Amino acid sequence: MRFVTRLLAFVVVILAAFWFSVRNGNELVNVVLPFLRIRAPLSLVVFACILGGMGLSGLLAWRAERRARRLAHRAASARLAHEPPALTESPAVPEPPTPPGSSSPPERSEPSPLL
After folding, report:
1. Nearest to residue 82, comparing CAs of 74, 71, 91, 90?
2. pLDDT top residue among 76 and 87
3. How far apart are CA 115 and CA 108, in angstroms?
4. Does the CA dihedral 87-88-89-93 come out positive or negative?
5. Rounded to 10 degrees, what is the CA torsion of 63, 66, 70, 73?
6. CB–CB of 66/74 below 8 Å?
7. Can you spell out the DSSP letters for 19-33?
8. 3-state DSSP helix/strand/coil percent for the chain, to nearest 5?
9. CA–CA dist 31, 36 (Å, integer)
10. Are 38 and 30 in contact (CB under 8 A)?
11. Coil, strand or helix: which one is 37?
12. 29: which strand partners?
């Protein structure tokens, strides 16, 4: 039911925007900026304002996300700095037993550089 309500609200908003565009499509407005004066249809000005607001809110959300990730990274690195060091050395691997007839340990072969 929630999906139907949201879909109906979306359709109503779209129809209201279409009605506004049709009713005010021939209205020309003057947009006066500090160094620029624009004469444009009202529906185009409203559409540009909506797109600008969406872009600005997306930019602010991206900036807040970057800031939150940076703070989380700092907290994680600070937490790791205060933890005791873990054993990173691997335990010694025992050597295979020497055959009964040899007195010297077996020589280890170097890995081939072609491998």
Report:
1. 74
2. 76
3. 17
4. positive
5. 160
6. no
7. HHHHHHTT-EEEEEE
8. 55, 10, 35
9. 8
10. yes
11. strand
12. 40
Cα-Cα-Cα-Cα dihedral sign, residues 14, 15, 16, 21: positive
- For residue 18, which amino acid is it? F
Residue type, 85: P
pLDDT digits 0-9 by tens, 27-81:
899 989 899 998 988 888 888 888 999 999 999 999 999 999 999 998 888 888 7
What one-letter code names the amino acid at 1?
M
Phi-psi region of 76 (alpha: psi -120 to 50; beta: other; left: phi over 0): alpha
Q: Which two tokens stand for residue 98?
A: 């020497």
Does the predicted TM-score (pTM) go above 0.70?
A: no
Length of the chain measured in residues: 115
* Mean pLDDT along residues 87-110: 63
Question: What angle separates helix 42-82 from helix 2-24, to the nearest 10 degrees?
Answer: 140
Count how many Cα atoms sit within 13 Å of the Cα of residue 24 in the half-sphere of its side chain: 16
